[in-house]
Design brief:
46% helix; two-stranded antiparallel sheet; two-stranded antiparallel ribbon; elongated
Length: 147
């Protein structure tokens, strides 16, 4: 596989994992948000990943040297999906957002689950950063050998 292609794939994964970490942090920050612009409690968001096939523009010298590039795919964020779990209702009659029965609707966010998601995003980011560093070292070694 073309080493520069490896850098592109790892770079796309870094961007996707960064967005995953940002969305998870937003979920944690809004775990107690009872009212948004839409009027209801904050809805937990999920990041949906997908693969983006590499456009194939015909055979050239680089592609003949690396046919594995034909199947290489970048990581991309397909969408941000709202979690449809119903809000958690707590009896707090003095709260300004309480309904007529005295219940307040809170987002259905589990802080432990969000921390696990955040740790997963951080570890995936670290692994891709390590892959970028290793690939960079391989490119530098190849240049040294050829130079």
């Amino acid at each position: 596989m073309n080493l520069f292609r490896v850098l592109e794939i790892s770079g796309s994964a870094l961007l996707a994992e960064r967005l995953r970490a940002e969305v998870t942090a937003a979920n944690l920050a809004n775990a107690e948000t009872t009212k948004t612009e839409t009027g209801g409690p904050y809805q937990r968001m999920n990041v949906v990943f997908g693969a983006r096939p590499v456009p194939f523009g015909g055979f050239n010298g680089m592609m003949l040297a690396s046919l594995a590039d034909l199947h290489a795919e970048d990581v991309r964020v397909v969408s941000l999906a709202a979690d449809n779990t119903p809000p958690v209702r707590r009896f707090e009659p003095g709260h300004p957002d309480a309904d007529a029965q005295g219940y307040v609707s809170y987002p259905a966010i589990n802080p432990a689950e969000e921390m696990v998601n955040l740790m997963g995003a951080a570890r995936s980011y670290e692994m891709n950063a390590s892959a970028v560093a290793s690939t960079k070292n391989m490119i530098q070694a190849a240049i040294t050998i050829l130079g």
